Amino acid sequence: MGAALRGLYAITPDEADTQALAAKAAAALAGGVAALQYRNKAADPSLRRAQAQALAPLCRAQRVPFIVNDDLALAMAVDADGLHLGGTDGDLAEARRRLGAGKLLGASCYNRYDSALAAKERGADYVAFGSAFASATKPNAVRASLELYARAHRELGLPVVAIGGITVDNAGALLAAGVDALAVITDLFEARDIAARARAFNALFEAMTQ
Which domains are assigned to the chain? Predict the structure, then answer.
């Protein structure tokens, strides 16, 4: 499944209102995202489960992979299409074993190529590097260089995801470096027209293939 991960990778914002979150996700899906990750660091376990249960069928209806952030038990409970783990959020090899071969497994590798190699060995389907740019979501995050993205594209043999501070205006440099997917929260979900913003990101990918 990982080899098909290309395009706009939508990551949900912290949103306490499940109905509002579902509406935002539906708009992103209408705009043509390649994957949607449920992430809500502010929610308690019961709200996270309710929100994941609301989002999963929206993604299935559009045949878009639904990925859960940092919670293997939740991913399995809602039969998500995949799981994304940060550096301290669980063992990738164990997650790979429990998820099975048919589910996506992603790993945050920050600015470290050696972490990406280790993630690949432990069964990751894709790796994410970032922050690509200054990020409002994680203002103190380490920064990943364009050279790192380019090296991973050349050498790693897995889809490469960029995350952190990405906008329609600055994404072109990442795509030129060989990034396969752009993980976006703020510039997508705070847009006045979420679907239109998703289409604008997709246009960047289309331009790279022409």
Answer: 2-208 (3.20.20.70)
